[in-house]
Amino acid sequence: MTANEDQEMELEALRSIYDGDECFKEISPTSFQFRIGELEDTKAFILDVTWPEMYPETAPKISLDAFFNNRISAETKQLILTRLEEQVEANMGAAMMYTLFEWAKENQETLMENHKPVITSTTISSSSDMVTAALAAKKDKKEHLTKAQKRRLINKKDNKGELPRGWNWVDVIKHLSKSGGRDDE
Q1: What is the C-alpha separation between 41 and 45, in angstroms, rounded?
Q2: 60 upstream amide cis, omega within 30 of 0
Q3: Which of 58, 114, 126, 136 has its CA 20 to 30 A from that of 106?
Q4: Are the beta carbons of 18 and 11 closer than 8 angstroms?
Q5: What homologous superfamily does CATH list for 3-112?
Q6: CB–CB of 110/71 below 8 Å?
Q7: Chain segment 76-119, per-residue pLDDT in tens
Q8: How far apart are CA 12 and CA 65, in angstroms?
Q9: Any alpha helices (H) in 48-96, and if so which ranges?
């Protein structure tokens, strides 16, 4: 079999195995993402795998550069990649995607045992800083229109040259309170 035939067969197998699995995502026929762990889990990560033209005779390109993985330290990422490369070497020449994904799922705890979530500047900011920023944003947002701008806005017509529907409607509740309802008769 040629490399392309092997790729087609493995792609078909992956589609049937992971059909409906939210952890598996096919980006293209030669590029995949697989999430190891639950979304809420701080030890979860996403593997980006791309097949080169001669896969499975050559190793797939594995990356942990997904935005989801920003909370993982560089040392932990390197450990995961090193361990996965060992698995790739052991399975070279054969369809290995299912094997890699399942191995990573089974060994997630081992791979992430030294994991300490990376703290970003957004997680450091205190609640008082956020409240102050929100109040400043509200003050900046209020924009005052001039009388001329208000007149233009009121007289704005639609594409048929008509005023918008309801431009002269009366406040119904106010009107009914002045005129009375049916029960007053």
Answers
A1: 9
A2: no
A3: 58
A4: no
A5: Ubiquitin Conjugating Enzyme (3.10.110.10)
A6: no
A7: 888 888 888 888 888 888 888 888 888 888 888 888 777 776 66
A8: 26
A9: 74-90
